[in-house]
Amino acid sequence: MLVGVPKEIKNHEYRVGLIPAAVRELVHHGHEVLMETNAGAGIGYLDEDYDDAGAQIAPDAKTIFDTVEMIVKVKEPQAIERAMLRENQTLFTYLHLAPDLDQTKDLVASGSTCIAYETVTDAMGRLPLLAPMSEVAGRMSIQAGAMCMEKSQGGSGILLGGVPGVMQGHVVILGGGVVGQNAAQMAVGMGARVTIIDRSVDVLRTIDRQYGNRVQTLYSTQDAVVTSVMSADLIIGSVLIPGASAPKLVTADMVREMRTGTVVVDVAIDQGGCFETSHATTHDDPTYIQDGVVHYCVTNMPGAVARTSAAALNNATLPYVLELADKGVRDALKSNVHLLQGLNIYSGLVTNEFVGKAHHMDYVDPKGILAA
Fold first, then answer.
1. Whether the Cβ atoms of residue 266 and residue 273 lie closer than 8 Å to each other
2. Cα–Cα distance between 293 and 259 in angstroms, integer?
3. Which amino acids are annotated catalytic?
4. Which of 199, 201, 211 is nearest to 238 (CA)?
5. Would you place residue 37 in the very low, low, confident or very high pLDDT band (cuts 50, 70, 90)?
6. Which of 169, 227, 253, 274 supports an S-S bond with 237, CB 3.0-4.6 Å?
7. Rounded to whole angstroms, how far apart are CA atoms 173 and 319?
8. pLDDT of res. 244
């Protein structure tokens, strides 16, 4: 199979769909790889590195989209990229379609096959291709939040870990999944007071076993959320429903009642965010202040630590890229039910139920399509 990797063009996105080590594996399996020139330059991978790994170098993205059978990316295709997609072509990347009607319409119109990293599952029902970036984003959320708490950034001027004789900052984490657990690890390490809220008692038990009395766990109720966020200095939003828009756990009224200088980091912003007052921001302009509350809502947080993120992402995605290339896309989807869960768009049809519901579009069971 001929696999192509265009250079990412989203704001301050330096990650790359395939690092040279992944290219070498594909070539070893008998496939061809076409890399856009300078696709990995932002994280130190030069065209010479890809040439040494066996890739061919394309002068521009159009050559990639016009030529290859499968495109491997990191972030959702931008409008100019979506216009180049074509029938009988496969796109494998993060999509986050539920809050993005324009992208959904464009991908449907393209007639291409679109597989989303974030909805691929494993035998335990986890999201193995979302996990590495959730780990990065969870750890970064505390780093970013701590900086936003500085007075010069509009924050309250509280040092997260405090100092002897002075109370440390209070971090509230909404959601105890991969993002939440990694955020807790960093917050505890910095000496903050940490509260984690989740609706799964099993998740809360796991966190309690790990941290003991260093973390306060609360079962998610409206009362628990309201009470906790009103006393917080930093709130991390990390709630996820795979493929669906994130639930709005914190209302605009609640934000208005928060203390001036409170910071919210909405890691769920890729799926629409879990604060009513959230809207997407970029690394160029990462924050805004509403009702005295600092909002950090960057949609590609891991892009800021792109070298680490790209390597972690490739570790997770490479087995699936190889499976799609080795078996062919259709046979790989038919033989792997977990990979099939990643199929969001197929030949002009929406094949993810949550995406269909989010946009009031007809949903088609992908098993029926592939069996036809």
1. yes
2. 8
3. 96, 270
4. 199
5. very high
6. 274
7. 32
8. 80
Position 245 scores a pLDDT of 85
Q: What is the mean pLDDT of residues 265-273?
A: 94
Q: What burial letters (b/e) apply to 150-175, b meaning 16+ CB within 10 Å?
A: beebbbbebbbbeeeeeebbbbbbbb
For residues 30 and 41, give the distance between their C-alpha atoms in angstroms, rounded to a whole number.
25
Return phi, psi of residue 264, to 5°. Answer: -120, 135
Above 90 in pLDDT, residue 69? yes
Tokens of 74: 């990191």
Report the Cα 54 to chain-centroid distance in Å: 29
Distances (CA, A) of 175 to 24, 62, 104, 172, 178: 38, 41, 27, 10, 9
Residue type, 340: L
> pLDDT of 100-147, one tens digit each?
999 999 999 999 999 999 999 999 989 999 999 999 999 999 999 999
Q: What is the pLDDT of residue 240?
A: 83
| CA Rg value for the chain | 21
Determine the residue type at 107.
L
The three-class DSSP label of residue 302 is helix
pLDDT tens readout for residues 161-176 = 999 999 999 999 999 9
Residue showing tokens 């780990």: 135
Nearest to 275 by CA among 298, 240, 300, 246: 246
- List the one residue out of 200, 204, 197, 152 whose CA is nearest residue 170: 197
- Per-residue pLDDT at 335: 95
Count of residues for the chain? 372
Query: For 136, phi and psi rounded to 5 degrees?
Result: -65, -50
Alpha helical stretches, state H, 54-200: 61-67, 79-82, 101-110, 131-148, 178-189
Percent share of the chain, pLDDT over 70: 100
Mind listing the domains of the chain with CATH numbers? 2-119+306-371 (3.40.50.720), 131-299 (3.40.50.720)
Angle at the Cα of 17 from the Cα atoms of 11 and 18, rounded to 5 degrees: 140
Side chain identity, residue 66? D
Closest CA to 198 of 226, 175, 215: 175
